[in-house]
Amino acid sequence: MSYIQAVILAIIEGLTEFLPVSSTGHIMMGGAVMGLDLNDPFIQLFTVAIQLGTILSVVVLYFKRFFKSFEFYFKLAVATLPAAVLGLAFDDQIDAMLGNPAVVGISLILGGVILIFVDRWFKNAQEDNADNIPYLTALKIGFFQCLAMIPGVSRSAASIVGGMSQRLTRKAAAEFSFFLAVPTMVGATGKKMYSFFKNHGALNSEEVNLLIIGNVIGFIVAMFAIKAFIDFLSKKGFKVFGYYRIIIGVFFLIFVFSGTIKEEKKIVEDGITYTEQMDLKSSSTALQREFNNRF
Questions:
Q1: Hey, how many other C-beta atoms are within 10 angstroms of the C-beta on 189?
Q2: Residue 4: how many CB atoms within 10 A of its CB?
Q3: Cα–Cα 20 to 30 A to 214, which of 36, 96, 136, 286?
Q4: What 3-state DSSP class applies to 231?
Q5: Tell me, what DSSP letter sits at residue 202?
């Protein structure tokens, strides 16, 4: 991966991480357009680790809120609990879905349909301050966030919709989603980095430089994206994001079925995991061949 490619991916991450549009889908599309091997271990680490820069932007923008009271952290811990438990319990299944890009495209489209109507469904908002939500509400939002374990759903979209379902205003739901991203993404990044170091060893100097650049760019872009998103959301709502997701989802599926974005297949031999890429045409042909051989 070149430095230019790293900057582009970081810009995509910074723009989409806190918007309800699925940063995963956009990273996959951007990487495919640039000809990157998205199954390369370092690139997979890079796309997760640069989330640290975007997380820092939340802490900087909402600095006072993070140091207001210990109860704030207790509520975030409660909201993070479902993702921590289910993430560990269904780790293999989540990886399998990540290896199937068609799931991302379908999730983008279905999520887009939901966002078109979500403002109508949750009209009677009562709470405009994310700091005031009770613990049970935080837990319920945490369960909504778990829907984002399905690639393409969008962590931001799932948690914001969860907040609105608990009668938070769009602004309050979005802000709690930002706050919840901090422990959730720190955990996901830590897990990914541990896995990388365990299986591939230390990073070389160029990889370290790429990560530094990616996090700096992601931080700067996310700062502007969060401010713009809150302002737009308060005035316009989610409908535009819904239509956008549907359009991007259609293009994503075109990329998948044309073979531009490839399916990942993992093969385990003698305790060692090998990764094989195939487009859906090849996959369908292989399945048909196996069917014919058996029957």
A1: 17
A2: 9
A3: 96
A4: helix
A5: P
Which tokens go with 36? 């990157």
Indicate the domain borders of the chain: 3-260, 262-295
The pLDDT tens digits for 47-102 are 999 999 999 999 999 988 888 888 999 999 999 999 989 887 877 777 777 778 88
Distance (Å, whole) CA 185 – CA 182: 6
pLDDT in tens, 180-214: 999 988 888 888 888 888 888 888 999 999 999 99
Find residue 168's DSSP bridge partners.
127
* Nearest-angstrom CA–CA distance, 272 and 277: 17
Q: What 8-state DSSP symbol labels residue 55? A: H
pLDDT above 60 for 276: no
- Does residue 12 register a pLDDT over 80? yes
Q: What does pTM read for this prediction?
A: 0.82
Could you count the other beta carbons within 10 Å of the beta carbon of residue 276? 12
Per-residue tokens: 182: 């901090």
In the block, tokens 């931001």 appear at 156
**Integer angstrom CA distances of residue 240 from 229, 280, 286:** 12, 30, 40
- Alpha carbon distance 142, 184 (integer Å): 10
pLDDT on residue 292: 43
Q: Which of 81, 95, 193, 187 is nearest to 141 (CA)?
A: 81
Distance CA 66, CA 181 (A): 13
